[in-house]
Specification:
By secondary structure, the chain is of the alpha/beta class. The protein has a single domain, classed as SGNH hydrolase (Rossmann fold, 3-Layer(aba) Sandwich). The chain has 15 helices and nine strands. The chain has a five-stranded parallel β-sheet with strand order 4-3-5-8-9, with helices on both faces. A hairpin with a 2-residue loop joins strand 6 and strand 7. Helix 4 packs across helix 15 and helix 5 runs parallel beside helix 10. It is globular. The termini are far apart.
């Protein structure tokens, strides 16, 4: 009986291995041909980036007003995946303001990468307002060094830098890959395993090992957790761990909030007004409309209020519109043109009430009354 059970478990987990994550570096190595194909997207400092043929490598702007207003940093919700250049919230905001709004968003970024890109861009470009935008799921990304550890089916199977907190201070762990040619090292299981030592999703998530005795996997808490999440079938590029709530993890929460602190401090020191954007993912908008709590929202709201940060609640902005949710989002989960237009209108209204639209040049202090996350 035990032999049959072991054999059955072996067959099941090998057939179902694509639905579960295991502590096995060979599961995350890249085919050498694919690794070579990723080299054009590689960035030694940021992990990966867009290289648009524009002055600052920002996403192309349909109009140039010759008057810089805002530079935006963040992930795919800042980049505005799934829409054209003229359909981003930055374009709609720029048209309404008749001033330039720069888009430095990159798909798959964590707030840590957004902060690092801000540091690079700010050496060349200064705008009166700078924003760091993120969806609340992004807390999962700041504890990650190799994206496949977090989401094995990712379209961005590259390494990234990350920060750790040491005695309350941010310490940068640089990108494990130093050159584009190093991307080919991701085909080496030993190298991939070494990266995992400082990656939560590989080293700290209690992933089981795929191997004998297979019957032990039947009682693995980590695998049952994945099963409750729906396995990998329920994951996507923008919601890789739908049932995992790292906002309850003090270390991860403290790290993300420290990154926000660093962004606000550095932007203010450079003479810009810093803006935190809580951008609207579809599950969060649906939750707000249904009156359900949103993991992570309250810690961010409280942190911004306590420190006097200008922080815009994009979730409430979209949830409060009369538009049906389906019209606000694309099939892949990003905002549709209608969603981006609604977000831009709400953001502009909020900026006006917070006196940020009055900026005509860099300012060192945050606007009075601009500290709370609120509904425009």
């Amino acid at each position: 009986m035990l032999v049959l059970l072991e054999a059955g478990a072996c067959v099941f987990f090998h057939l179902a291995r694509d639905r579960f994550a295991f502590a096995d570096p060979t599961q995350y190595v890249l085919d050498p041909a694919r690794a070579a194909g990723l080299e054009p997207h590689f960035d030694a400092t940021l992990g990966w980036t867009h290289r648009y043929p524009t002055r600052y490598q920002e996403r192309p702007r349909p109009s140039d007003f010759g008057r810089p207003f805002l530079a935006s940093f963040g992930d795919s919700y800042t980049h505005c995946d799934e829409v054209a250049d003229g359909e981003t919230w930055q374009t709609y905001l720029a048209d309404a303001q008749q001033a330039d709004v720069y888009n430095f968003g990159v798909g798959g970024y964590g707030p840590d990468q957004a902060l690092l890109r801000y540091r690079l861009v700010s050496r060349q470009l200064t705008t009166p307002v700078v924003s760091l935008g993120f969806v609340l799921e992004n807390i999962n990304r700041v504890v990650n060094r190799y994206r496949p550890f977090y989401y094995p089916e990712t379209g961005i199977p590259l390494t990234k830098p990350r920060f750790v907190l040491e005695r309350g201070a941010l310490v940068l762990l640089p990108n494990p890959l130093a050159t584009a040619a190093d991307v080919r090292r991701l085909s080496d299981p030993a190298f991939v395993h070494a990266i995992g030592a400082r990656d939560f999703w590989y080293a700290s998530a209690d992933l089981p090992r795929l191997g004998f005795p297979y019957t032990q996997l039947l009682v693995s808490p980590a695998l049952w957790q994945q099963a409750l999440e729906g396995g990998r079938a329920q994951r996507s590029e923008i919601n890789e761990r739908p049932a995992r709530n790292l906002w309850k993890d003090a270390d991860a929460r403290g790290l993300l909030l420290a990154i926000l602190d660093a962004f606000v401090s550095e932007a203010t020191s450079s003479g810009s007004r810093a803006l935190i954007l809580v951008l609207p993912g579809k599950p969060n908008v649906e939750a707000r409309r249904a009156g359900r709590p949103i993991p992570g929202f309250e810690p961010v709201r409280r942190h911004c209020a306590e420190r006097g940060y200008a922080c815009f609640d994009g979730v409430a902005a979209l949830a409060g519109t009369p538009e049906p949710t389906a019209a606000l989002f694309r099939p892949g989960g990003h905002l549709s043109p209608r969603g981006n237009r609604a977000l831009a209108a709400a953001l502009r209204s909020w900026l006006r009430s917070s006196h940020l639209l009055e900026s005509r040049g860099p300012a060192r202090s945050a606007p009075e009354g601009g500290h709370a996350v609120g509904r425009p």
